[in-house]
Amino acid sequence: ATPISVTVGIGRGARDGVLIKDAEALESLEKINTLLIDKTGTLTEGKPTLQNFSVAAGESEANLLALSMALEQRSEHPVAHAIVSYAEARDSKPAEISDFTSITGKGVSARFDGKTVLLGNPALLNERAIDISDFAQQVTDLQMLGHTVMLMGVDQKAVALLSVADKIKASSKEAIAQLQQQGIQVIVLTGDNAITAQAVAKQLGLDDVRADLLPADKFRIVQELQAQGRVVAMAGDGINDAPALAQADVGIAMGSGTDVAMHSAHVVLVKGDLGGILKARSLSHQAMKNIR
Ligand code: ADP
Ligand code: MG
C-alpha cells in the first residue's frame, strides 16, 4: 500500500501545479544529484521571435520571405512559428512549394521552381556542401548574442540568414541558482549550436553545455550518467526530449510542452515554472522524512 505521506505529498503538489505521477518519482526526487535541462522551451519561454532577416546581394527579400513562409508553415518547430508570424505580419503570401521534408534537429527542405530549397541551421547547409562563407561572420556575431541562426540555401547558394531569439523564463535564474546551492549539478542539453547555447547558459550562471544533440544523444547522456552512479533528473518539453525523459530517474516535463513529453515524464510542471522542481523536491523530502 502507498504510505499516507506519499499520497499527501502528491496531493499537495497537484494543488500547486506540480503533477507527480507516481510514488516512485516522489521518492527519487530528493535523491537526484544531476539535473539535465533542455534549453528551448524549458529554460526559455519557447516562443522565439524573429530578430533578423537578411538576404544575399541581388536576392529579393519579399520572394525569400514568401519561400521561408511556405516551408515553415509545414513545420511544428518553435522557430518555424517565429518565421511564419513575421511573414504574416508583413502580409507575405506563401510560395508554391512541393516535396516538403522535415530534417529532424536540423531544418526543413522542399522543391521550388525546379530547385532544392533548404532552411535550417548552418551545419545543415555545410553538410550539403553549400558555401556559407558570406554569412559566416554574421552567424557567429548573432550566436554570441544568444540568437539561433538559420540559413536558407537554394540549390548550391546561400541566399538568406534568419535569426530568432527566445526569452529566458523569469523563473529560471532563481530556480537554477537554488538547485545548484542544493548541490545538484546542472547540465544544459540542446539541439541548438554551442555558441548560442553557451550565451544563454551564461546568463543563468551555467557553464556545462552539451550542444548539437539529436534526441538519441540526449537519451544516451542520461544513460551514461546513470552508469556512473548518478541519480539523474531530466527536464524538457519537446518530442526530442521524450526518450531522455522516460529514461531519467525523474523525467520532468513542462505543461506548456508537447503531449509526448508529458506522457514520457514522471512529473509535469503545469505552468512550466522551473520553481516547480524545488517544490517537488521539498515535497519528496517531507514525504520521505515521515516514512523514515
Ligand atoms: P532544440 O533542442 O533547441 O529544441 P532541435 O533539435 O529541435 O532543437 O533543433 C535544432 C536546430 O535545428 C534548431 O535550433 C534550428 O536551428 C534547426 N531547426 C529545427 N527545425 C527547424 C525548422 N523547422 N526550420 C529551421 N530550422 C530548424
Ligand atoms: Mg525544447
Structure characterization notes:
It is a single chain. The chain is an alpha/beta fold. It has two domains: 4-45 and 168-291, Rossmann fold (3-Layer(aba) Sandwich), CATH 3.40.50.1000; 49-165, Calcium-transporting ATPase, cytoplasmic domain N (3-Layer(aba) Sandwich), CATH 3.40.1110.10. The chain is 43% helix and 24% strand. The chain is built from 13 helices and 13 strands. The chain has helices at 4-15, 23-29, 39-43, 61-72, 78-89, 122-127, 133-144, 172-181, 194-202, 215-227, 242-247, 259-264, 275-291; strands spanning 18-20, 34-38, 49-55, 98-103, 107-112, 115-120, 148-154, 157-165, 185-189, 209-210, 232-236, 250-254, 267-269. Helix 12 links the parallel strand 12 (250-254) and strand 13. Helix 1 (4-15) runs antiparallel to helix 13. The longest helix is centred in the last third of the chain and has 17 residues, at 275-291. The protein is elongated and about 70 Å long. It starts with a helix and ends with a helix. The model has no long low-confidence stretch (mean pLDDT 96).
